[in-house]
Amino acid sequence: MAPAAPLAVLALVALVAPGLGVAPGCDYPAHRWCSSRDVAAACQVQGRCPTLPSPAAAPVELSLYYESLCPACREFLVLKLFPTWLLLPEEMLSITLVPYGNAQEKNVSGKLDFECQHGPEECLGNMMEACLMHEAKNFSTYFAVIFCLESGTSVTKNLEACLQLYAPEVDSGRIAACVQGDTGVALMHHNAQATEALDPPHQYVPWITINGKHTDELQAQAEASLLGLVCHLYQGEKPEVCGSSKAPKVPSGCRR
C-alpha cells in the first residue's frame, strides 16, 4: 500500500490541479512542485509555495566620476563610499570609479594630452589610479589602494606604501610603465569619453550616478547618507546594518 501524501501536497493538488489535470509543462510529481522556483513556475504554483528561496536581487550600481585631488571627491570616497562598501555584503553594491572629472582632453600635434582642474599633479593622480585599476583588475584590491591614496597626504607619492599595505602582489613597476606609456593615455581617453557621454552632462564633481541615473535628489541622498540610500534601493534581503533614513539635499563639490 502506497504511503499517504502529506496533507499540504493534497491541498495543493486540489487547489491547482483539480481532477487529474496539471499545469501545461509541469512534468514533476506533486511532492516536488515547491522544490525550486523553476519547478514552481513550470507547475504554476509559485503563490502556493511559501518556502521558496527569494530570487537573487541585482546590486545597486553606483558610478563615481571624480578627480584625484578634488577635496569634495576625496571626502566622499574616503568617508562615504569606502565605509559603505565595507559595511554591505558584496552582492548589494557594485561600484565603478572613473577618475577624470572636469579635465579636458586635447589633441596636441597628433598626441592626446590632458589638462586637469587642479593642475598636472591631478592629471598624474588620475592616470595612476586608472592604471592601478587596469593592472590590479580585482575591485577589492584596487579600491583599498585608492582609498589609501585618497586618504593620505599625497595621492601621487604614496603608491608604494599603499601597495605594500593593501596589495603587495601588484607590481608598482607595471603601474609606472602604464602611466608613462600609451596604455595610460588610452585609459584616460576612455574615461574622458565616459565622462563626456554622461546624460545629463556633469556639472561638478563628485558626480554620482545610481543605477545609471543622475538626479539632484539622488546626488544629495548619496552625499548625505549613502548607506541609507543603497539599503533603500536594494530589492533583496537587507542586512541588519541597513537603516531607513532618507538624506536631505546638500551642496555639491568641485564645479567647473
What this model shows, in words?
- The protein is an alpha+beta fold.
- It folds into 2 domains: 29-58, no CATH class; 60-237, 3-Layer(aba) Sandwich (Glutaredoxin), CATH 3.40.30.10.
- Helices cover 44% and strands 12% of the residues.
- It has helices at residues 7-16, 37-42, 71-87, 120-136, 139-151, 159-166, 172-180, 182-196, 216-233, and strands at 60-66, 93-99, 104-108, 111-115, 204-205, 207-210, 254-255.
- α3 (71-87) packs across α5 (139-151) and α5 (139-151) crosses α6.
- The protein is elongated.
- It starts with 6 loop residues before the first helix and ends with a strand.
> Which percent range fits the helix content?
40-55%
CATH homologous superfamily descriptor of the largest domain? Glutaredoxin
Going by CATH, the architecture of the largest domain would be 3-Layer(aba) Sandwich
CATH fold-level topology of the largest domain: Glutaredoxin
Largest sheet: number of strands, sense, barrel closure: 3 strands, mixed
Number of helical segments with 4 or more residues: 9
The outline comes out as elongated
Secondary structure layout:
Blueprint lengths: L6 H10 L20 H6 L17 E7 L4 H17 L5 E7 L4 E5 L2 E5 L4 H17 L2 H13 L7 H8 L5 H9 L1 H15 L7 E2 L1 E4 L5 H18 L20 E2 L1
Parallel strand pairs: 1-2
Antiparallel strand pairs: 1-6, 3-4, 5-7
